[in-house]
Amino acid sequence: MKAEIYGSHTEICLTEEEAREYCKPDCGAETCMWLGRISSKGYACNFMNRSPHTINHILNGGTGVKKDGCYKVRDKVLEFSQIEPSPVVREF
């Protein structure tokens, strides 16, 4: 599990094995509520990018999953790397 910190958000990508070990996909209430699927990269943890809308949705019973993160993201026991923002190029 590795975290990349950008100017506006943090990306945490997980391998299939890491997702099964920490996030428990397809395990009902044991599945982490912050687990996301990225088709080209596998899985992503959205714990660091929680929006107020998503938090309210989950707290109001909008999902059957109950696990709220894991020790690796809560205690920041993972490799972080700062990514410099790339310049925005716009063509008109």
List keywords for this structure.
single chain; 92 residues; alpha+beta; 22% helix; globular
Structure report:
The protein has 92 residues and is of the alpha+beta class. The protein has one domain. Helix content is 22%, strand content 23%. The protein contains 3 helices and 5 strands. The chain has a 5-stranded mixed sheet with strand order 3-4-2-1-5. The longest helix has 8 residues. The mean pLDDT is 78.
Quick overview:
This protein is of the alpha+beta class and 92 residues long.
Strand count, sense and barrel status of the largest sheet are:
5 strands, mixed
Helix content: 10-25%
Percent in strands: 15-25%
Q: Spans with pLDDT under 50 lasting ≥5 residues? A: none
Overall average residue pLDDT: 78
* Class per helix and strand makeup: alpha+beta
Number of helices: 3
The count of domains is: 1
Oligomer: single chain
Series of secondary-structure elements, N-terminal to C-terminal: EEHEEHHE
Shape: globular
Query: Order of strands side by side in the largest beta sheet?
Result: 3-4-2-1-5
The count of β-strands is 5
SSE blueprint and pairings:
Elements: E1 2-5, E2 10-14, H1 16-23, E3 35-38, E4 42-45, H2 52-59, H3 71-74, E5 79-82
Parallel strand pairs: 1-5
Antiparallel strand pairs: 1-2, 2-4, 3-4
